[in-house]
Specification:
Elements: H1 2-29, E1 45-51, H2 55-68, E2 73-79, H3 81-89, E3 96-98, H4 102-110, E4 119-124, E5 126-131, E6 151-154, H5 159-170, E7 179-181, H6 184-193, E8 198-202, H7 203-208, E9 213-216, E10 226-232, H8 239-250, H9 252-260
Helix pairs in contact: 3-4
Length: about 270
């Protein structure tokens, strides 16, 4: 009789212990709710729309931000600021927008796309990019108007194109490019490939080209200083993290990366 009584109790205790373990495991796997909810950065992601001239710096900053925020993923999309804001106006999903000028950011502001006011984080000025050795002998802005010079510019609606027109107007020049591109990186690419004798880009693009082009500074560039604004977007599903990225770009670490690349202070 003793054996017959102990065995069922032993089995019952073992079954109860297993059930308790299973319950505790299940509870541990359940997400915390209410005030104890966890939103680990490791599972968060951001999509950042940024001007083409920011490609090198924002690629670096995104990597640093991911490390500093527990592996949060930053997806970058670069292009002409006018193209990027048009995409946002048409509903493209993004969390942060960084423009190369205030005019295109103003479109995002008037369209009600921002979660707060834009903040300036850098400045930039133009420089003439020429192929190595400067075969066409370009030494000034005026040289770009000489007959036979294959000049490439950004389209006027693109920030570098608008800045180019301002600089030309300050010098009383009418520039006639052989092509107009939708981003400053496209202009630089044509100079690097030898398809252009010169192109108007930013000083940061010449510096970032790694010796593939020569740069020709010109005084009229001071008439067209570009101010770069950044803002978190209202549609973001990770608003707090998006604002943290904005603050990171404007903070000491972000400003060092931008300054090292040739950008001016806000």
């Amino acid at each position: 009789m003793k054996n017959r009584i102990v065995r069922p109790r032993s089995r019952l205790a073992a079954a109860g212990a297993l059930a308790l373990v299973a319950l505790l495991t299940a509870c541990g796997a359940m997400p915390m709710t209410g005030g104890g909810q966890s939103t680990s950065s490791s599972s968060a992601s951001l999509t950042v729309f940024a001007a083409a001239s920011l490609k090198a710096t924002f690629t670096d900053l995104a990597h640093q931000f991911e490390i500093a925020h527990g592996g949060a993923k930053v997806n970058l999309s670069f292009g002409g600021s006018s193209d990027l804001v048009a995409q946002l106006q048409n509903g493209a999903p993004a969390d942060v927008f960084a423009s190369a000028d205030e005019a295109n950011m103003a479109k995002a502001t008037s369209g009600g796309l921002l979660s707060g006011g834009p903040q300036i984080f850098a400045t930039n000025v133009l420089e003439i990019a020429v192929p190595k050795g400067n075969p066409a002998g370009i030494h000034s802005l005026q040289d770009l108007a000489k007959p036979g010079v294959r000049l490439v510019l950004c389209a006027q609606q693109v920030p570098c194109g608008s800045a180019s027109q301002k600089a030309a107007q300050s010098a009383g020049l009418a520039l006639k490019p052989v092509s107009e591109e939708q981003s400053v990186t496209d202009v630089l690419g044509k100079v690097i490939s030898g398809d252009a004798d010169a192109g108007l880009v930013y000083v940061t693009d010449v510096k970032g080209a790694g010796g593939k082009v020569d740069g020709v500074p010109f005084p009229e560039s001071k008439a067209a200083v570009n101010r770069y604004p950044i803002a978190a977007l209202k549609q973001s599903k990770a608003g707090a993290l998006a604002q943290e990225f904005v603050d990171f770009v404007r903070g000491a670490q972000g400003q060092k990366v931008l300054g090292d690349a040739g950008f001016g202070a806000p």
